Every structure is written in C-alpha cells, then in structure tokens.
Amino acid sequence: MMYTRSTFSNTSMLTIFSMEVEKQIVVLNDNLLAAENQTDGDNADSTAPLEALMRSAHSIKGAARIVGLDLAVDVAHIMEECFVAAQKSKLVLGSACVDELLKGVDWFTQLGSIKDDTQPEWLEEHKESTQQLVVAIASLLTQSVTSPSPIELPSTSDDDSGSIESPDAKRNDIQSPDITSSQDKAPLQAASWHQAPSDTEANHTLQEDSHHDRTVKVNADNLNQLMALAGESLVEVNWLQPFADTMQHLKKRQQSLNTLLDQLQQEVTLPAAAKNKLEKAKETALDCHALLSDRIGDLDQFSRRFSQLSDNLYRQVIASHMRPFSDGTQGFARMVRDIARAEGKQVSLKIVGQHIQIDRDILQKLESPLTHILRNAVVHGIESPNRRQQLGKSEAGTIRLEASHRAGMLSILVSDDGSGLDLEALRNSVIEKQLAPPDLAAQLSDAELMEFLFLPGFSTAEQVSEIAGRGVGLDIAKSMVQEVGGLLHPYNEPGCGLTFHFQLPLTLSVIRALVVEISGEPYAFGLTRIDQVRLVKRADVAMSENRPYVVVDEENISLVNAYQVLELPEPNHEVGDHLPVIILKDQGQRYGIVVDSFWGERELVVRPLDERFGKVQDVSAAAITEEGLPLLIVDVADLIRSIEQLVLEGNLTLLGDRTAQNSQKQKRVLVVDDSLTVREMERQLLQNHGYQVDVAVNGMEGWNTVRTGDYDLVVSDVDMPRMNGIELLSHIKNHPNLKQLPVIIVSYKDRQADKMAGLNAGADYYLTKGSFQDNSLLTAVMDLIGQC
User: Fold this and answer.
1) Residues 285-329: pLDDT tens digits?
2) Is the pTM of this model over 0.90?
3) Where are the alpha helices (DSSP H) in 321-416?
4) Burial status of residue 21 (CB atoms within 10 A of its CB: 0-12, 13-18, 19 or more)
5) What does the pLDDT look like over 176-194, one tens digit per residue?
6) How far, in Å, are 746, 754, 758 from residue 751 at the CA level?
7) CA distances (Å), origin 299, targets 243, 302, 463
C-alpha cells in the first residue's frame, strides 16, 4: 500500500513527523559518536549504541512511510541496513564510515527543521542530491560482503512500483550494491526492505512517544505572570498567621470574661431577674467561646492546607521553567568531533550531569558561550596527536563538560587536558596590544592576567580560521554571565589544561539572595555575585590615601558605604564593633560594601521593574520578602561602576563610628524666639538637616543659655520680651569669648532701615520670616557653619 500526503491530516501528521525526526536526530548523533569511540577503544563489543541506532532509523522510516515521504524512507532504510550490518560485525563503524552516516543525520536535520508542511516540496527540490546521498551511504555496505548477491533498492522515481518491497524480503540479506561511475549503469543495488508496517503499527510508530513528554506552548509573559502570582500566594499565606494569633488572643480574653462572670455570680447577691440575665450572659459567653474555638481550629486547618497548596504551586511553577542540562548539550559532541576532524585531532567530549535541572532561559543563553569555549578548547587547547605523544599523553584529547548544583547555584565546568595557557605569551600579547604598560603587565597576577581573555577582540591565536582566532567568544561568555547575574572564572594548569568555571543562578525567575538593610530599607544581593560576606572588626580597618580598607586573603579591599553609593540617607543608628561587609568582585575589581545589617539568605521571586521606569541605576529588579516587604535587587555590575566613578571623583566618604562622627560633625544651634510656631518650625528645619538645636523663649533666656553652652550659631528674633534681639546681639558681640559666634537675625520687619540696624549691630545675616519658603534660613546657616 502506498501512503500519500492526502491519507492523513497534512498539518498534524507532518508536524508530528518533524517532532519525531528532531527527537531521533539526537539519538543518531549521540550513538554514532559512541559507536565510533567504542570502535577505537576497549568497548567494541558493546551493542547498546548499535541497537539504539537501528531503532532510531527504523522509527524514522516508519514515520516517513506514514506521511508519504518516499525519499526520507530511502535514506532511513539504507542507514538502518548499515546499522544492522554493524550489529552482525559485517561493517565496522570507523571514522570514515561515521562521516558518511552523519551526512545522513544532517540531511534529516534539514528535513526536520521544516515547520510549514512543505517537506514534500523540499524533497522534490533536493531529489538528485538525496539519491546521491543514498548511493554514498549504500557504498559502505561493500566492505561487509563476502559473497555478493545484488538486490535492487527501491526506485526513487515518481513510479510507485518498487517503493516498498514484498513482506517476504529477508532482512538479513545484506548484499553489495553495483556502483559505477556511469549514470547509464544498472540501478543501485543494496539490501532488501523490511516489511511495511500496518496502518495501526505505523501510526503507533509515529506517535508512540507523543505522551512521553507532552509539551504545550505558553507565552513567556503569561508564564512570568504565573510565577509572580505563585510568589504572591506564598506571601499571602504568611498574613494568616498574625490573624490566627489575634484569634487566639481573643479566645484568651473570652476565657477571662467567662471567669469574671463566674466570680460575679459567686460574690454578688442579685435579684432573681438580674440573676437570670447573668445566667443567660454566661451561657452566651460559653457559646461564643465554643464557636470561637471551632473557628480557630478551622482557620488553623485552612492555613496549613493553604500553605501546603501555595508551596506546591510555587514549586510546580518553578519546575515548569526547568529543563535537563542534556537539552542544551545535544549538538556539542557532534560539533567537537567535526572540529577535531577538521583540525586533524582526536578529541572526545564527556558530559557529566545531563540530568541536572536548569532554567530554560539560562539553558538557552548558555548555548553560545559553551559553543565558543568548546571550539577554543579543540582548536587552541588540545594538542595534535603527535605533540601529545611527545608529551607522554594519549593521542586522543578529552574535554569535560560538567553541570552540578552547588550551594544553591548552578555550577558548570568546561575543562580540557590540553596544553593550558602560556601566561608569558599572554602577558606579551597584552603589552603588544597596548592594553597595559610593560611595568604594570609585569606585576599582574595570573588571575588578573587571564581577565584580558574576556576583552572583546582579544586573541592569542597566531592564525585566524573560520573556527577560531578572531577574539570573539570569551567576551560573549562573560557578557552572558553578567547578564544573568553570575560569575565566570578561568583556571589554568600549564601543560595540563584550562578550565572555565561558570557560577550561575539556578533560575532567572527565582534567585537565592542575601537580604541586607541599608538606611533602614531591605535590599538583596544575588548570591552568585557575592565573593564573600564578613563581619569586619573596626580595629582591622586601616587607611591608605585617605581611603579605608581591610586586608582579606592578603589583598587590600577598599571599603565603601552602601548608603552613599545608592544615594540614600545616612543611617542614624549606632554602629557596633563589627561592620557587616559584602565583598563583591567584577572584572578583577573587589570592593567591600558596608551595610547596616544582614537579614539572611532568602529565595526571592524576581519581578521586573515597570518599563516606564527605564533603567534604574544600581538596581536590576524587585521582589517581595516572605513577610510581604517590597525590596530592590541590586545590579552588582552597575553598583561597581558607580563605586569606581565615586573613587575617580574622590567623593567617597570615610568610614568610622557614625555616632562619633555625628558628635564631631553635628553643629549646635541656639534658636531664640518668643513665638512657639516660629521656634518649632526653625528647630525642625535645622534638625532635619542634621543640626543639634536648643531653644530659648526670650532674649534673656537666650543670653543665659548662650553663655553656658557651646554653640556654633545663634538664630534670634528681634521683638521679644525682657531682651530684644538687637540687645542680645550686642551682648554676644561684646563678650570676649562669644564675639566670633555667628548670629542670624530673623524678623517680621523687612524695612531697609531695620535690616541696616541689625547688620550694624553685628548680625551676620538679617532675614525676614516671610522668606522661609525659599530655604533662605537653611542657606544662611550652611554658609556660616557648613553642613552636618
């Protein structure tokens, strides 16, 4: 029976076929490489890869028959016959043989990538090249024949005859094709076809895995919104506990009421009518107590169920973002093999941790960085077979790609057993490219030197090829890591290999973060961006070039106030003997960020900022704590740039005991005014700007106060009882110890004559009370005694 395109629903069946091909391509690639490695190694007797290859090719062949793609049937069939021959040890899957079979895999890759149901049209356009591919693969079977007995392959022409052979054809009759250079020779000869499956069998072949890993397409924005709602549900659960605590408190009060009613009944003699009412009151109170107890029990039960449900929902939504690491590594083994073959090298790729779950967004972003690093490892890292022999190594090099979860983060290691980096050559390259002067380059540590590898366009390759050498790759990897809030470190062992260590968040939707307090507000730092967290003794803080620092791991780490970088008010609470410090590292720079306190490690649902805000400096996103408090997630890379700008401008504030600083810096001001309203307004205005303010209600009290206190400034009214402002000003200016004390006169009188009288008496400023709205008083105070 010949299946045509019209036999089935074109859209659904061809789409399913493409899905089937995509799945089987992974199997074919992986197991072809495994079979090739076994042929060259010690496990040549293992049949598992060959069985998987045969099943995969057979599945594609059956699926292609269903949708009527005859050329796809031909390619799959001849590949299957090769695998059968290899199973029977009649064909050796060496490198040359695998090269041809991989061309068949590439052909199916192109076919499977077609998503618009135009596979038949594509096949018609590529009919001739496909037939040539079938001939090339079929030629591999010539090396497996001991007694040729040609059997014709089905024709790939439009004639339906011979498209599917008789069910009586024997599967094991592997014969030699008659291949000549002339196109006029007889048709291609090869092994017989298997029996065509029935409609039911074929349909099952095509859809057998359709329920194994069912997926649906979900809009990314909808999925993010679902994640946000799941996070909110966790927050809302926590609001039930305070309500339950209040109900318990009410229950205790209710019990106290019952006790009081009992005491009242026993201690007071009441008339019969009042006694009956008291009895009813007791019954009502008992009923309320019982009802309240029941409802508290229901609330507790609901709270537990709601908490469990919210937690399960939260975890399931997170799981919907995750995919196994193997989903992102499917093409790497094939890529490494192809590049190695092109370079004349022998390289195998070992992937560890393929089951590790990774956020699908991170997995997608990892593809390009890992591709570049693997290419570099093959081209620059692994030596040629001859060179490896000279060094006492095996001819075949090994690249190891490993994924794991460590300390709440995703850890990915890419290492090779090649020659490693020549650091002196790297140092010379830095100097030649004028990236650092020779004297500075000579002092760079190995870690600092390797940071140059991540600069755009930087390369140590002597020759540029299509594969590597243009200086593009590691900068892409670094940019990707910074984008997701991670870290990337290279580790070099000269002569033994090079390792790149990615430290990334497990998911972009939820991050593990350290929540801290800065100026009374919570902020979060992603754990992947934190180098260390320390409580630094104040006695360990030293000064260099008027900048505070602390020694950590034999390195001077500059200390910076977090509130200054984030442009927040200075905290007014006292600092103890230890400073909470977060040590951050970016592009080789390390800074210690001094915060108010550590709140602890939290798991936060990331919420993007509203696009209308644009890019908020030093902030990457927002979140809500389990207590329902909103907080901002710090953009560490942006924060370090802000720190460097402050350092460049020389505007960093000094560290020290804030209480001691305030007592040294805080200026004392005496406000003298008989108007309570004006007096309090001036006091609050000055106190809000850091000044310590005392008040006096008239000139005489002001004079007595200023003589007994240590003030930096006096602000006085003019019209006051007992002693006016001009008299107070004259007493101050005529006192030998007070004559340098600045005085500001504040009055309702705004005539020029009044102003001249005050200034002639020695006032440093004469202001009218009507000018307070333009902050003239504050400006005058700062001009005379400075800011606090």
Assistant:
1) 888 888 888 888 888 888 888 888 888 888 888 888 888 998 888
2) no
3) 332-343, 360-376, 385-390
4) buried
5) 333 333 333 333 333 333 3
6) 13, 5, 11
7) 9, 5, 73
